[in-house]
Amino acid sequence: MNETKQQPFGRGPQAPGFAAAQDPFDLFARWMEEASASEPLDPNAMALATADVLGLPNVRMVLLKAAGPEGFIFYTNCESAKGLELAANPKAALLLYWKSLNRQIRVRGPVESLSDADADAYFATRSRESRIGAWASRQSRSLASRAALEEAVERHEAEFADRDVPRPSYWKSYRVAPLEIEFWASRPHRLHDRIVFRRAAPDASWVKTRLYP
């Protein structure tokens, strides 16, 4: 009987030469482009870690909507658990992991809220249903039943039936200004490749270091 050769678990497409990169955002853009071509669903999904006023950590998945030299941008309800945690402790960590490539990127840094104009511009690109959903959901707060949520959706659909759906004042944009960006790529026998770019402040120069796996 012929045996099917399988790729050992934990080994995926390698990223040859990435350790020679000098600019973390150029490398990030290249990896994101490759992930967009290979990841079947939401290549921009990332884990967002925050901490509350007592230092207790919290983590959840959000969508990265833009990235560049100034930082990594996402949008959320500022009255949600993550919004309240960011208001009390405006620092965060991000993690993007692409199983199809066996690569991950970790980011840490301070967080700032962007302008209402920025939030308005992105909110306008969302589907009407998603914009209605932003009004209907009191994110992270107690919900009596699924029916109560559906009733809220119906109520706001009626409210905005004859006009455009505006952005709720609590729906905001945030940017993580990275002080650290780490790139990790799987290699055989757990001898992975890791490089990290660090800087003392968002306007400082990057220092690159190669790390043991």
How is this structure best described in words?
The protein has 213 residues and is of the alpha+beta class. The protein folds into two domains: 18-124 and 169-211, Electron Transport, Fmn-binding Protein, Chain A (Pnp Oxidase, Chain A); 128-166, no CATH class. 25% of the residues lie in helices and 31% in strands.
User: What's the CATH class label of the largest domain?
Assistant: Mainly Beta
Number of strands: 10
How many helices? The count is 5
Instruction: Indicate the radius of gyration in whole angstroms.
Output: 20 Å
Which structural traits does this protein have?
single chain; 213 residues; alpha+beta; Pnp Oxidase, Chain A; 2 domains; ten-stranded antiparallel β-sheet; 31% strand; elongated
Question: What is shown here, in short?
Answer:
The chain is an alpha+beta fold.
Write the layout of secondary structure elements.
Elements: H1 24-38, E1 45-51, E2 57-63, E3 66-68, E4 71-77, H2 81-88, E5 91-98, E6 103-113, H3 116-123, H4 128-136, H5 146-159, E7 171-176, E8 180-185, E9 193-198, E10 207-211
Antiparallel strand pairs: 1-2, 1-5, 3-4, 4-7, 5-6, 6-7, 6-8, 8-9, 9-10
